[in-house]
Amino acid sequence: MAAPPVLDVQGLAVTYGTLEVCSDVSFSVGRGRSLALIGESGSGKSVTVLAIAGLLGGGGAIARGSVTLEGAEISRLSPKERRRARLMGRRIGMIFQNPSRALDPVYTIGQQLNEALALTGITAKADCRRKGTEWLRHVGLPDPEEALDRYPHQLSGGQRQRAMIAIALASEPEILIADEPTTALDVTIQAQVLNLIRRLQRELNLALVLVTHDFGVVAAMADDVAVMYAGQVVEVGAVADIIRRPVHPYTRALLSSLPTGKPGGRIEALAGSVPTAVDMPSGCRFHPRCGIAEGKCSVTAPRLEPSTYGRLLRCLNAEELRAHAI
Amino acid sequence: AQDSPQSGGMVRINVHAEVPNFDPLASTEFGKHSRLGLALSKLIDWTTGPDIGYGQFVPEPSLAKSWEISEDGLTYTLHLREDVVWQDVAPVSGRPFTAEDVVATFEAMRNGGVQEGLLADVAEITAPDDHTVVLRLNQRNVVLLQNLAHQNMWILPKEAFDGTYDRNTTVIGTGPWIMTTNEPGVATRYERNPTYFGKAEDGTQLPYLDSVEILPITDLNARIMAFRSGQVDIWFGPLNMTQMAAIQKQLPDLNDIRTVSNTQTELYLNPAFEPFSDLRVRQAINMAIDRQALGEVIRGGGELGGVVGPALSAQTLPTDERIALYGTPDAEGARALLAEAGYPDGFSFELTALNYGEEFMREAEWIQQDLAEIGVTAELRMIDKLAGMTLGQEGGFEALFLVMSPFAEADEYLSTHYLPGANRNYSKVDDPELTAMIEEQRTIADPEARQQKLWEIQRYIAENVQTTLPIWASELLHPSHARVHDWRPMMPQGFPSLTEVWVSE
Amino acid sequence: MPAGAVPADTLLTVKDVSVRYPIRRGFFQRVVGHVGAVDGVSFDLKRGETFALVGESGCGKSTLGRAILRIEDLAAGSITSAKETRSFRERARQAQVVFQDPLGSLDPRWTVGSLVAEGIDVHRLARGPERDAMVRTLLSQVELPASAVHKFPHELSGGQQQRVAIARALAMRPELIVLDEATSALDVSVQAQILNLLKDLQVEYGLTYLFVSHDLTVVGQFADRVAVMYLGRIMEMGRASDVLTAPQHPYTRALLASSLKVDAEARIETIPLLTGDVPSLRNPPSGCRFRGRCPVVQPGCASLDFRMTTSGGRQIAACLAHGNS
Amino acid sequence: MSHAAQAIAEDIAPRRASRTRKILAALIRQPVGCTALVFLTVILVMALVAPLVSPYDPLFQDRRAILQPPSATHWFGTDDIGRDVFARTLYGARISLFVGLAVVSVTTVIGGLIGLVSGYFGGWIDTIIQRLVEVLDTLPSLVMSLFIAAMLGPSIRNVIIAVTLAQIPRFVRVVRSEMLKVRTHDFVAASRVLGASALRIILTHGVPNLIPTMLVLGSLVFGIAIMTEAALSFLGVGTPPPNPSLGTMLSQGTRFIGIAPWLIVFPGLMLTVSVMALNLIGDALRDVLDPQRQ
Amino acid sequence: MLTFALRRAVLGIFVLFAVSVLVFVAFRFIPGDIVDQQLSEAGAVTPELVAQKRAEMGLDKPLLVQFTEWGRGVIQGDLGNSLWTGRPVLDQIRSALVPTLQLSMLGIIIGAVLGIGSGVASALWTGTPADVALRMASTVFLAIPQLWMGLMTLTGLAAIGYYIPIPYRPLMSDPLTNLQQIIFPALALSLGVAAALSRMTRSAMLEVTGADFIRAARARGVSPGDVYMRHGLKNAMIPVLTLLGTQFSNLLSGTVIIEQIFNIPGLGNLLFEAVANRDYPTVQAAVLTYGLLTIVVNLLVDLSYGLVDPRIREARS
Ligand SMILES: Nc1ncnc2c1ncn2[C@@H]1O[C@H](COP(=O)(O)OP(=O)(O)OP(=O)(O)O)[C@@H](O)[C@H]1O
Ligand SMILES: Nc1ncnc2c1ncn2[C@@H]1O[C@H](COP(=O)(O)OP(=O)(O)OP(=O)(O)O)[C@@H](O)[C@H]1O
Ligand SMILES: [Mg+2]
Ligand SMILES: [Mg+2]
Predict the structure, then answer these.
(1) Could you tell me which chains touch chain E, where touching means 3 or more CB pairs under 8 A?
(2) Stretch 84-123 of chain D: residues touching chain B, C-beta under 8 Å
(3) Residue B221: which of B248, B239, B245, B236 has the closest Cα?
(4) How far apart are CA B397 and CA E31, in angstroms?
(5) Structure pTM?
(6) For ligand 2, which residues put their CB under 6 angstroms from it?
(7) Which of B360, B393, B383 is nearest to B268 (CA)?
(8) The pLDDT of residue C4
(9) Of A25, B131, D200, E198, which has the fewest CB atoms closer than 10 Å, so is most exposed?
(10) Crossing angle of helices B331-340/B279-288, nearest 10°?
């Protein structure tokens, strides 16, 4: 990670009214790199990426922290300023979890593509068609020319997600954010779509932020991974490294609670469930479920601190653990 | 302004109901026959004039210029005018009027026309020559002459009965105006009939007015607006005193003409129903109702009803007598009568009121409160008009409250209400003595003697029958704008005095 | 088939079962076609085993499960059990179900106590204090605190909701529980808890599970036998360890290859991809239903008859590439 | 509905009672709901205790005080035969509320039942019911009510019948579609697997889940019923005199437009406020009962 | 789409048939008939005359015969002649239909413009005083019965001394006067519609703006105006259209009252009078016309869904 990161998030906190649903999220992604944001449901992954993209709705606001895009701070920009800075679409592209719901059902794929193309200055009808066809071909839609005139419901789930990707990329963004882009899809289709995203990311040299709760996806897709728990990033590092040597007790527990696929045998289940913003434990947020929690854990809130191998860790026992793991 | 009549101009008259069609034989309703009168004529008409009362019948020659009645009263010979031509409207197109037309009209009326009852005693109609018609009667009936002047007795050309034209839509007559256009629900326009036979006393060709427009406006408020804003010159139809006062405030010099209504409200008591089988109970009910106050408060004027409606001023009982019979409420006496009849604590019954509109329902409610005073509970039930009439004919009511048809002859009141089998005899009165008296009065040619007989009958009914309690004949308001002169509303429909109306500009 | 014909270790025999959903149209809701959600499926359920149904979305797994529960009518075939049952009431003691969406399978207007007791109430198994005691026992069996009795489903976490659903099923002391993606909606940590609980319960009460899932890793760990479905048909069936380690039918292979593993070396680029989408069940392809996406498709596949062949305790749908046609 | 139904009813009775209290509590906490509830309660109480509150007998004709404008003695003035408009308005509200309540109860029970059955069983029962509903629903509801009322003759009972018949289709439609939704939930499938009978499922799962819908719909139909009653009475086929129905009063008032506006203003206001209170309660209920907000 | 419309039309005819049978039978239960009405102001009437007139109008035939004769006529496009006026029923319906249609069309158009406009504005300004004011206004107007609205309009006009021109002028013969006559009643009708539509538009807009595809459109840089109008409004139109359909039916109900109040010779007045006169063919025809109107409007609404929503368009072809 020698090059300066394209996207750098530091200590991001998001509130909905008085509820702090996401507090202290930090990670960064470089050009051509892909970072996975993983965590259990409700850990604040979506909120984080929406905050970055400036799409927090319904009373959500960035309370603290910074989001810098190629060195420029964007977290304090108003929607107008964001548009003026051409952040929306043009620099940050976004793919959503459910392609059936993220495409406007009453417009054709082509019409929705055109909106994205308009950002790059392509407005002439013929140009739009040509460029649109090109993008659809790029994402591997069969009959791209014809697909332009199709409505979302006339496509299968996988095709819809491809169209979604084409629309997100048509404005040629620098960063692609994908919020669980394949959770709604079948495994065979998931493989196709993930493959496509990865290929395009490489080709276009994009920075990719991939939100998921599936370690399989992380392993297959990401260079780096940030593990989130209860609105905080608890561990950041290179994917292969973290899978081999998880350090944070939560990361470890998470990995070990995955079924192995080996017949029989109990799974090492992590007891309890993710706390919600209303009943957040004091101190370390994971301590009630942590196997190695000590007295201080319920008192002192740990900070995300650098560790060896470029790893970031949020644990009061970080040093001990690291020694243990290696 | 001038004070002598002048020709020209036009008036607009509002009416409160649209006419279904213009066929005089098809139905009886008031509105239709009123409007037909602008274009049609009868053999005999009602005389109108400043000195003649609203309900006073003085026969006036019309299509018949004179007539003779045989000694036995069974043959009527009518001599027709010779200068009459039909209006120049296709397909009759100005043909001269002859006795044939009268015969055709009367025959059609006797065969399925609503006028059947008016010609019931006529056995034969003949036309010895083109300008003479002879009516031969089965039995003496002094009312026949008036029947010929009845509001429904319009004479039509014979073509109206052989299918040459459609009576429903085409109006061809010998009357003062020709109906030129008719937009249902909007307006009907009439233009002067240049060949009309009527002349004023000074020999001026009648009518004075070039044209008349009839505007059917069903809604009271709309009509008031139309009148106030001058879109209507002559008001025709119901209007209450309160509204009249408001209009007068705005238009102080309008012609305020008021007459007694030719209809009255009546309360039928059904003797088949237990307490009402007792004459004393019926009398008690009669005594309980404070009609004068009712008329004052609800109608703002009018006259006490009578067995024969008060509009027929020469035939109904004299006012003081009517006041004695119907206009002196006496709760004490009523209670005493009830007690005598075995109902010291009163009783309750169902008072079915036909839906004749708001004021009418107020009268019903008024009666309800008056009866409560003597301990009698009237449960008010409102019913659709036709359903109510059916109920009446079937006799399935306890008490029925309604507005009587506009009758122009005492005989109509008496024979429809009290002869067995008659269509308004809802209380099923069958009193041989009464029947004989009613039949007898028809044969009395001498007006004085007949009047005495009619009074006798009415007194008899009030004392011995009392199944139909007359309630109230309201005051009719006929305001017209100041520019309208000599407008004298008269009881029979057809705006008989309209030929003499003139306008100043 | 009379009850006696079922072997002793077999709980249930599913034979040539087809289930069709009518497609209705128009004013009089005429049936204009059918979705053949399940088409000629046969297998036995052995007592005490966990039998998994896997396959992609819409392939008919849930429908088959519902057919076994008799809440779907069979268009063809038969389902026979060791014990003859006639009514829903009797069947309730035999088979129960836990659905995928915990919230949707719990009436939001009922308390946990009444939800768990629903079966007890329906069958009048107990009343008053006795009933309450049963509810408490059931809650503790699924490791829920007794205080949950008065809570409403939305006041519980997903894992707890699923425990309530399990308790409700357990109340009937059924022989078979159909687990229709019972853990798919849960987080991995919670999924692990529930899977462990299910395992414990199976051991304790000798339960048989029909485990519907699309997660091959979970199936590999949890199931004894597995049937892989595609477009309403079983493509391959056998012992889970065999099928998932040495898949034979091209579809099974593709499915296994597509499922991502948590492996530091795994890269998406290395995964062999299937082309195309899952065809519609309204007009499924002729012959082998997988042929549209099959990497080893041959000209004869379009006219291939569907048939299961057995080899080495494994059943495989007829396949030209595999050579078992 | 035999023993089973009774037993089921016993089962769910305590739950329902506590729910009602909860809903009420939630309603009161909501500003709109609270205001509406206060309004409706005031109207209801005034209507109920009208004989006590009312300064005059609504039928009593004070024949010396006709068409009096509003004053200290007659707050809302008097009508053309000297009846106190305030008293009549109170009693009018009483009639309106009675008609509304009767219509809502009957529609809820009959319409609800038909809708539940139609939605739960589907198939030909459903098809037939749907077609019938369609036929009943072809005429605008007032035309339908007008027709039925004209046929039966004016009386409060007949108004109730006429309005009910015209409103049932709406109820059936909504309840059915809601039941269809409820039926697809897995908890219904789970119930069937537990061996519950159709009746039991309809009563224990269908009805409770439809109560919010029915409450909201009920408040809507309540308002519509009040308005229709007024319209029918206005047209002379509704509540007959002397009953001071609000519609009858309006009809009487039309003869004095521009002269005695109080005859129109006050009954109309009462009508509007009642309907508004009901609409607002419907809105508030919708919010309170929305599971997403619970 | 065409087959869909055709099929709906055929089914509509079935429904109309059922309605007319119901009405035909039910109406005969009301006591009294046209002959009583025709003779209602007569003096002496003989039973023979009554019987003769009844026979002339075919009222003495068995009900089934009467219905088949009527039905046969309808199929041949002949609705018969009014028993009361003797005119062809079709003519009467035609002239009564115009003002009713005018009223309801004008009402629905004004209502839709006001309602959808204020709904969109209200959603746009969520939470602002303007939104609160608009919502309060719609709450109030929604609760005002059309009856009272009509009467108050009339009272108001009387107060300012404005007179609606009299008599009623048909659209064809005097459009200007006609408009003066129709506009106030139409306005009185439209406010309730506007209120209902405003509420629905607002909530539909708010619901839609929370949808994923709106978020996605914003994410791809679509301008807020376009997001709002192109994506938001178009999607929000589907429930609004449904409501528009039911509002039309509501409005038709309203015309019955408003025609009475404003003295407009429309369908409602025609029906009302025909009922009072027991004019069977006219009643039948008026009822059929109301039914037809409802069916046509529902069909139009259904078809318009297709215009807005391609999924529906598809499901129908
Ligand atoms: N619009 C909102 N208003 C209030 N709270 C919200 C809103 N959106 C999200 N939250 C809360 O923020 C927290 C984090 O939600 P988020 O959607 O980011 O989780 P996630 O990690 O994406 O989970 P999942 O895997 O289920 O998508 C949750 O507790 C959620 O309830
Ligand atoms: N009630 C129904 N009416 C019509 N079609 C149905 C119905 N239920 C299911 N189907 C169809 O039947 C097919 C099989 O559905 P089923 O729910 O059994 O699939 P599944 O394998 O369980 O899928 P998933 O993994 O998505 O749950 C699907 O194509 C579905 O669309
Ligand atoms: Mg998320
Ligand atoms: Mg399923």
Answers:
(1) A, B, C, D
(2) none
(3) B239
(4) 14
(5) 0.86
(6) C 21, 35, 37, 55, 57-63, 214, 281
(7) B393
(8) 47
(9) B131
(10) 160
What CATH number should be reported for the domain whose range is C1-90+228-325? Answer: 3.40.50.300
Alpha helices in D112-261 (DSSP H): 112-121, 123-136, 141-152, 156-184, 186-193, 198-201, 207-234, 246-253
Q: Is the CB–ligand 1 distance for residue A132 below 6 Å? A: no
pLDDT one-digit tens code per residue, D263-272 = 999 999 999 9
Atom of ligand 1 minimally distant from the CA of A40: 25
Each residue's pLDDT tens digit, E250-273: 899 899 999 988 888 899 989 988
Beta strands in D124-194, from DSSP E residues, in sequence order? none
Supply the range of the domain harboring residue D42. 2-293
Here the ipTM equals 0.85
DSSP state of A277: G
User: Which pLDDT tens digit goes with each residue over B71-125?
Assistant: 999 999 999 999 999 999 989 989 999 999 999 999 999 988 899 889 989 999 9
Task: Kindly give, in sequence order, each residue whose CB lies less than 8 Å from that of residue C200, ignoring residues fewer than 6 positions away.
Answer: none
Name the segment(s) of chain C with CATH classification 3.40.50.300.
1-90+228-325, 94-223
The length of chain A in residues reads 326
Q: Any residues with CB less than 8 A from the CB of E108 and at least 6 apart, and which?
A: E190, E193, E244, E247, E248, E251
What single DSSP character describes residue C74?
Answer: -
Q: Considering every ligand atom, which ligand is closest to the CA of C61?
A: 2
Mutate to test the pocket of ligand 1, among A14, A47, A96, A250 (most ligand atoms within 8 A of CB): A47
Q: How many domains does chain D have?
A: 1
Output DSSP code: residue C3.
G
CB contact under 8 A, A94 and E219: yes
Handedness of CA B238, B240, B246, B252 (dihedral sign): positive
**Closest C-alpha to B427, from B268, B297, B281, B290:** B268
The position carrying tokens 């007139």 is E53
CATH 3.90.180.10 fits C94-223, yes or no: no
C154 to chain D: which residues are within 8 Å by CB? 291, 294
Bridge partners (DSSP) of residue B133 are B78
Report how many helices (DSSP H) and strands (DSSP E) chain D contains, helices first.
Answer: 13, 0
Q: What is the CATH number of the domain that holds D129?
A: 1.10.3720.10
At A15 the pLDDT is: 92
Per-residue model confidence (pLDDT) at position D13:
41
Contact E234 A92 (CB under 8 A): no
Residue E89: alpha-carbon gap to chain centroid? 20
- Output the pLDDT for position B41: 93
Q: Collect all residues with Cβ–Cβ distance below 8 Å to D20 and sequence separation of at least 6.
A: none
| Ranges of residues in chain A whose predicted pLDDT is under 50 | 1
User: Which of left, alpha, beta for A61 (phi over 0: left; psi -120 to 50: alpha)?
Assistant: beta
Residue A322 in contact with residue A13, Cβ under 8 Å?
Answer: no
State residue E166's pLDDT score.
Answer: 72
Rounded CA gap, C192 and A254, in Å?
Answer: 10
DSSP secondary structure string for all residues of A259-318: --S-SS----PPPS-PPPGGGPPSSSTTGGG-TT--GGGGTSPP--EE-GGG-EE--TTH
Per the CB < 8 A criterion, the answer to whether E146 and E103 are in contact is no
B266 phi and psi, to 5 degrees? -135, 145
Sign of torsion over alpha carbons C202, C207, C208, C212: negative
**Does residue B15 sit in helix, strand or coil?**
strand
